[in-house]
Specification:
Layout: E1 14-17, E2 20-27, H1 29-39, E3 42-43, H2 49-58, E4 66-72, E5 78-80, E6 103-107, E7 114-118, E8 124-129, E9 132-138, H3 140-150, H4 160-169, E10 178-186, E11 189-192, E12 218-222, E13 227-230, E14 236-240
Parallel strand pairs: 10-14
Antiparallel strand pairs: 1-2, 2-8, 3-8, 4-5, 4-6, 6-7, 9-14, 10-11, 10-12, 12-13
Length: about 240
């Protein structure tokens, strides 16, 4: 998956890489989050080392700070959008963050490389996290084809934060009790069809049916928040990115 954003991205209003959209409109952090929640899912979290490396590679040529979904809570602890505590961040720039800075932005150009703490009244572009629930019910294969034709792919969920953000998108009465995600059982193991590594799992505790399914070989996310192996010919709603 190509995710490098060329420097010319700063001359356009929006540009997508993976599950993230760079929005070249300058706003304060809370305004940016409101915009993302209205048009997409939320301000972009980057909780895993793989996420952080991809963001770094994608923004090497950018010359502006850009908001990400990282903020200080009332107890002065850093949290991601999705409410999970942000621990073990290795990408702060030298000397960052300062005590009076409550939100985070990314910048990898020249000598200020890394994440920066930024004051709340700063006005800069931002990254939105973008998951889309389709209103048409399809089989797993049909959903995969639709996502690849009209978006990028059936979504993977690579962290607890991504699972929570996906869950927030499917809590509507008209959405089926479970929705297709890009999880498939091939050979003797589950994998993401977009090629991303399976580093996070959300099967129900004690569930063994998914370990060697005879028929239910496609993965779904339920409204309760866990993964479920399901019959691939069942028609469900689904999540693209």
């Amino acid at each position: 998956m190509k995710i490098h954003l060329q420097s010319k991205v700063e001359d356009v209003s929006e540009a997508q890489f993976g599950k993230h959209v760079y929005v070249n409109i300058s706003k304060r952090w809370q305004e940016a989050r409101d915009y993302c929640r209205d048009k997409y899912t939320d301000l972009s979290p980057f909780p895993t080392p793989l996420d952080q490396e991809r963001l770094k590679n994608a923004t090497m040529e950018m010359t502006k700070l850009a908001w990400i979904g990282l903020y200080k809570d009332k107890e002065q602890k850093w949290r991601w959008t999705g409410e999970e505590l942000a621990t073990n961040i290795q990408t702060w720039a030298d000397g960052e963050p300062l005590d009076n800075e409550t939100f985070a932005a990314t910048y990898w150009h020249c000598d200020r490389k890394g994440w920066h703490g930024v004051r709340s009244d700063t006005v800069i572009p931002f990254f939105c996290f973008n998951l889309m629930v389709d209103d048409v019910k399809k089989t797993w294969e049909e959903a995969l084809e639709h996502c690849r034709e009209t978006h990028t792919d059936l979504t993977s969920l690579n962290s607890e934060i991504e699972r929570r953000l996906a869950l927030s998108e499917i809590q509507h009465d008209h959405i089926t009790k479970r929705v297709w995600i890009g999880l498939r059982f091939f050979g003797d193991h589950w994998l993401w069809v977009n090629g991303e590594p399976l580093v996070y799992e959300a099967w129900p505790k004690g569930d063994q049916e998914h370990q060697c399914p005879l028929r239910k070989r496609c993965g779904a996310l339920t409204k309760e928040g866990h993964w479920e192996n399901w019959d691939c010919v069942e028609k469900l709603h689904f999540i693209c990115y």
